[in-house]
Design brief:
Elements lengths: L5 E15 L2 E15 L4 E5 L6 H9 L6 E6 L2 E2 L5 H7 E4 L3 H4 L6 H12 L4 H14 L16 H13 L5 E5 L7 H18 L2 E6 L2 H7 L2 E6 L2 E7 H6 L4 H16 L1
Parallel strand pairs: 3-8, 3-9, 6-7, 7-8
Antiparallel strand pairs: 1-2, 1-4, 4-5, 9-10
Helix pairs in contact: 4-5, 5-6, 6-7
Amino acid sequence: MTTPLLKVTGLSKRYFSGYRRFRAQYNEALAPISFELGQGETLAIVGEAGSGKSTLARILVGAERRSSGEILFEGTALESRNVKQRCRLIRMIFQDPNTSLNPRLSIGELLAEPLRFNTKLTAAERAAQVSDTLRKVGLLPEHADFYPHMISEGQKQRVAVARALMLSPKVIIADEALTALDLSVRSQILNLLLHLQKEMGLSYIFVSHNLSLVRHVSDKIMVLHKGKLVEKGPVAEVFENPQHEYTARLIAEQTRQGRKR
């Protein structure tokens, strides 16, 4: 039996909310959730605002601690790896490059930063890898000298993709990474991500509320509602025969919106 690239078991998150009658009280942001992700697969995590999907993404990337559960990467507990190793394995593309890219750093500096802190590459080697990665995402090596405000929104998101690639990860989490883009640019970035997946064997986790988008690019889907996993399975099966009323409602709403356009 093949070991999954990523295996999550009983993962949950709760936040301390104070005391009541001298007892600690907690708000459950994410009920225990389990799933697997194989190499080269794309998993979609969908749900409305407050569903827990971004909380799950932050836990997976190491930006937030889980309350319980286990995360295995290629059969090994993820927390047994040090921070540098973890940074290499799972990277994230954020929704808004205008807030995730430091405006005071050049694009070259932004891309070299993960290499500077997580590798022993020389300055010349870092510069060469920056140029190579810029080409991979459809930009020019000369863009290394630009600053974020000097390029278009679509180019900024390409830089965000490049930054996620810098440490040669095996999993990339895209947290609403295409939401703020107009349709033509969104299509370009999506095609870029699919090309990179095929070329590099990447696995993706798409966190999104856009069902029409994830339907066309994902192998599997998980539907979250108020912090609980209400449905999961192969994309085609879930869309054609949803088992939970919340999933059916999301699909129906997306279909209505598509007809209005």
